[in-house]
Design brief:
Layout (H helix, E strand, L loop, with lengths): L2 E5 L5 H11 L3 E7 L2 H12 L5 E5 L5 H9 L10 E4 L15 H29 L3 E5 L12 H21 L5 E7 L2 E2 L2 H5 L4 H7 L6 E2 H12 L9 E4 L4 E3 L2 E2 L3
Parallel strand pairs: 1-2, 1-4, 2-3, 4-5, 5-6, 6-9, 7-8
Antiparallel strand pairs: 10-11
Helix pairs in contact: 1-8, 3-4, 4-5
The chain binds NADPH dihydro-nicotinamide-adenine-dinucleotide phosphate and 2-hydroxyethylsulfonic acid.
């Protein structure tokens, strides 16, 4: 039977790459994000590959909007086999005494509360069917803390903890939970972190070979395609030039 994957934050980067990777490997897709036009273009593109696709435009921070959009799915589309909780961002790169409080709200509301808003609606559908695989896109920033990473790191430590918590609470419902913790991946991430400063963002990925969004999508596909008795609990994926959050060898 055809499987259904819901991917949040599919308009860019890792989420978009995961849409292609899961779509081209037999999943039908529910793709979400705030930027409607990008979702429409992506739908057209995946449908050219004969992938069945629905798009939902909502902000994961808005609990009512999130619940409404998901509940409005036709019943058969609510049979979600794979939930990729990917929508997330960093905003700002300041020491804790100089951080912008709106940036802090944005990260906590998106990365933690947004992930919970989506999960709280979708998980009961998985529990009912006793089938499901949740992929939480956390980060190396959820394993370590680095200078000026403060609140972003805290939000990703929360995602890491929630992956463990979900695994514990859902194990008796036959639901798998995989925590994905990438290091430096070249996407729109740094542009968003630096509030649109493209030049500064570009420098993050210069002098070494960063990971691509497709590399992480490969890992997601690997995790979801294991046999049913096997759960990849946690994957940390780094560029070869990166040893940890603060050690990156640049030429
Ligand atoms: P991108 O900026 O390229 O993509 C982020 C995605 O998240 C976009 O599709 C965006 O969609 C969506 N998003 C952000 N805020 C919201 C919101 N409030 N509601 C709905 N969707 C939202 O970055 P990445 O692909 O790199 O990031 C994906 C995930 O990977 C994030 O959780 C990030 O923290 C994590 N990560 C990234 C790493 C990296 O180095 N790039 C490393 C480790 C983890 P839209 O704007 O259309 O709403
Ligand atoms: C994104 C990777 O190192 O910028 O989570 O935190 S890092």
């Amino acid at each position: 039977m055809i499987k259904t994957a819901l991917i949040t934050g599919a308009t860019s980067g890792i989420g978009k790459a995961a849409a292609f990777s899961l779509g081209l490997n037999g999943y039908r897709l529910i793709l979400t994000g705030r930027r409607k036009q990008r979702l429409e273009e992506l739908k057209t593109e995946v449908e050219q590959h004969k992938v069945s696709c629905k798009i939902l435009v909502f902000d994961v921070r808005d609990r009512d909007e999130t619940q409404y959009a998901l509940e409005a799915l036709p019943e058969k589309w609510k049979q979600i086999d794979v939930l990729v909780n990917n929508a997330g961002l960093a905003a700002g790169f300041d020491p804790i005494d100089k951080g912008n409080l709106d940036d802090w709200d944005l990260m906590i509301d998106t990365n933690v509360k947004g992930l919970l808003n989506v999960s709280r609606t979708v998980i009961p559908w998985m529990v009912e069917r006793k089938i499901g695989h949740i992929i939480n896109v956390a980060s190396i920033a959820g394993k370590e803390v680095y200078p000026n990473g403060n609140v972003y790191c805290a939000s990703k430590h929360a995602v890491d903890a929630l992956s463990e918590a979900m695994r514990i609470d859902l194990v008796h419902h036959n639901i798998r939970v995989t925590n994905i913790a990438p290091g430096l991946v070249e996407t729109e991430f740094s542009e968003v972190r630096f509030h649109g400063d493209k030049e500064r963002a570009k420098q993050v990925y210069q002098g070494y070979e960063p990971l691509t969004a497709a590399n992480i999508a490969d890992c997601i596909l690997f995790a979801v395609s294991r046999p049913p008795h096997m759960n990849i609990a946690d994957m940390t994926i780094l560029p070869t030039a990166q040893a940890n959050s603060t050690t990156v060898i640049k030429k």
